[in-house]
């Protein structure tokens, strides 16, 4: 581990490992196959990059996306580490040149896509290499229970037999429920004792769910208040992306867009504009972002509710990868549920629909819970006993809760009287006393119209709240039905109260730091000259640390977070000069 710490300081500019990083690296260096579950921004990459430098031979990194490979290789080369990738963006001649460098020992880490391993000729080439470590990034793609299952990942384990001595294997992911972790371990034959979970909390992120907002107005106002900050806005459909993009473009915002309906060349152009800080805001479907290593994203906003908690946390986790405070905002509307059900119904693999519907219910509950939002998420991933974060929209809402026990009893009673075999919408209509033809048969019930002081939409939202509180449960299916839980029976019998409060709207206005803006300008100029994204030069966290420490010489500059020997030599004089001038 002493050698590992020296490599950490020399190449990456950090003095110590985080606790779980150290345990994982020690395990890998002792040739133990390992699963590392660590949240986005937690430093997963170092868990295989440091062993790659410490071990003899080549490290193969299996990665799902071209953009992810390019970002990682750019970052490693910037730190003076010989790395390369092979994917469909390279010509046959370029692939041959990379493999020549690998065979000659000129490459320490080689990034490849899982589909590449289905090529017999490529696998024969691998047989002749001294491979000491195989890193499987985004390992949740292996699991049929994962939110982003990729069949090609299921064949990775077959290459382990290419060498007389099997390389050490490390699988890494940010989003794995207990089911997914178990599936990964079973397929890769990883001992459960070699699973390391750092916890899923992201302490630098603030979570909010806003219901009933005028979404367009809110987005405009928020971005106006955060003019210098980079952010991502996720939307559920291509049509929504185009609409939001046009709205922001017409408002004079430097905006980019990304969705599956665009030509690949156009998508790449827009993605590069965002990565290179030429566009402040990226508006995209979930097709964007996996493996995007842009560290200075200060906010991620979901214009509509996503399909499941895994997708939401992975997408929201693209904020604040540098560890600085960032916001994750979900703008919820009841129509989002229908949109996601429609998208799930279009799935090619019909066998996965019941799993996806079950996952959808969890994100619906998240949008209606009044518990701590961060705790709700991490408990979903099996991280029990987590304390409240103290800063999410729910934790920060200091208004007193209202006793809604009587209204809750009326809803639960109605569900029982309707036989506990109908869905949320028709139940809400019965309670509202709707004259809809579908509810005529229920006019004889004593609960018909018993909540007519509310409209059907408000009642449906109240039912969602009761589901989130687990007083009502959902039987999933194409037409989900609701029924009363054991806890709900306690409410019916007046054995417990139900308290509820409204959601608070909140936004943050950030003040500019003149030195930070000056350093950011220098970073952008260097990045343009080198043809790399600005965060490859230095992260926002490094720039903020420069502002705090005000280094005046090379020795002091080396104490800045993220400054290693290579970056001191390449960039130190420019930033030191700017700081001296500012002082």
From TrEMBL:
Protein known as: DNA helicase RecQ
Every Helicase C-terminal domain range: 218-361
Family: Belongs to the helicase family. RecQ subfamily.
GO biological process: DNA recombination; DNA repair; DNA replication; SOS response
Co-factor(s): Zn(2+); Mg(2+)
InterPro entries given in the database record: DEAD/DEAH_box_helicase_dom, DNA_helicase_ATP-dep_RecQ, DNA_helicase_ATP-dep_RecQ_bac, Helicase_ATP-bd, Helicase_C-like, HRDC-like_sf, HRDC_dom, HRDC_dom_sf
Source superkingdom: Bacteria
């Amino acid at each position: 581990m002493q050698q590992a710490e020296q490599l950490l300081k020399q190449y990456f500019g950090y003095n110590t490992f985080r606790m779980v990083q150290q345990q994982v690296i020690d395990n890998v260096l002792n040739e133990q196959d390992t699963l590392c579950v660590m949240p986005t921004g937690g430093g997963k990459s170092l868990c295989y990059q440091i062993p790659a430098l410490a071990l003899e031979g080549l490290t193969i990194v299996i990665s799902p996306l071209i953009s992810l490979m390019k970002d990682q290789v750019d970052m490693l080369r910037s730190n003076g580490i010989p790395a390369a990738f092979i994917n469909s963006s390279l010509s046959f001649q370029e692939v041959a040149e990379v493999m020549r460098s690998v065979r000659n020992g000129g490459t320490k880490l080689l990034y490849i896509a899982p589909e590449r391993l289905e090529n017999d000729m490529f696998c024969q080439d691998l047989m002749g290499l001294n491979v000491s470590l195989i890193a499987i990034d985004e390992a949740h793609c292996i699991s049929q229970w994962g939110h982003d299952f990729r069949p090609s990942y299921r064949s990775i384990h077959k290459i382990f037999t290419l060498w007389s001595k099997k390389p050490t294997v490390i699988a890494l992911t940010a989003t794995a429920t207990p089911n997914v972790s178990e599936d990964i371990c079973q397929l890769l034959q990883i001992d459960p004792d070699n699973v390391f979970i750092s916890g899923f909390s992201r302490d630098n992120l603030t979570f909010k769910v806003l219901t009933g907002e005028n979404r367009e107005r809110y987005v405009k106002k928020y971005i106006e208040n955060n003019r210098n900050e980079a952010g991502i806005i996720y939307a559920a459909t291509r049509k929504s992306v185009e609409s939001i993009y046009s709205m922001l473009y017409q408002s004079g915002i430097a905006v980019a867009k990304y969705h599956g309906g665009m030509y690949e060349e156009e998508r790449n152009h827009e993605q590069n504009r965002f990565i290179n800080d030429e566009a402040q805001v990226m508006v995209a479907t979930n097709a964007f972002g996996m493996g995007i290593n842009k560290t200075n994203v200060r906010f991620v906003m979901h214009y509509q509710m996503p399909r499941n908690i895994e997708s939401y946390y992975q997408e929201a986790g693209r904020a604040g990868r540098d560890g600085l405070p960032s916001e994750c905002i979900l703008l919820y509307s009841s129509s989002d549920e229908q949109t996601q059900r429609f998208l799930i119904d279009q799935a090619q693999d019909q066998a996965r629909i019941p799993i996806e519907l079950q996952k959808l219910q969890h994100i619906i509950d998240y949008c209606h819970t009044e518990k701590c939002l961060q705790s709700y998420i991490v408990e979903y991933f099996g991280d029990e006993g987590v304390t409240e974060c103290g800063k999410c929209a729910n934790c920060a809402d200091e208004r007193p809760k209202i006793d809604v026990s009587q209204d809750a009893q009326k809803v639960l009673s109605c569900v029982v009287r309707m036989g506990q075999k109908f869905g949320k919408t028709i139940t809400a209509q019965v309670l509202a006393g709707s004259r809809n033809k579908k509810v005529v048969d229920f006019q004889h019930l004593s609960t018909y119209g018993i909540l007519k002081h509310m409209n059907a939409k408000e009642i449906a939202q109240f039912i969602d709240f009761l589901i989130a509180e687990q007083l009502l449960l959902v039987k999933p299916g194409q037409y989900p039905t609701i029924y009363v839980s054991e806890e709900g029976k306690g409410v019916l019998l007046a054995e417990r109260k139900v308290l509820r409060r409204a959601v608070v709207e909140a936004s943050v206005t950030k003040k500019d730091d003149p030195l930070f803006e000056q350093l950011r300008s220098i970073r952008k100029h260097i990045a343009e000259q080198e043809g790399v994204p600005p965060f490859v030069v230095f992260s926002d966290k490094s720039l903020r640390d420069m502002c705090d420490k005000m280094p005046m010489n090379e020795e002091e500059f080396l104490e800045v977070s993220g400054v290693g020997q290579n970056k001191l030599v390449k960039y130190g004089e420019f930033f030191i000069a700017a700081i001296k001038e500012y002082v």
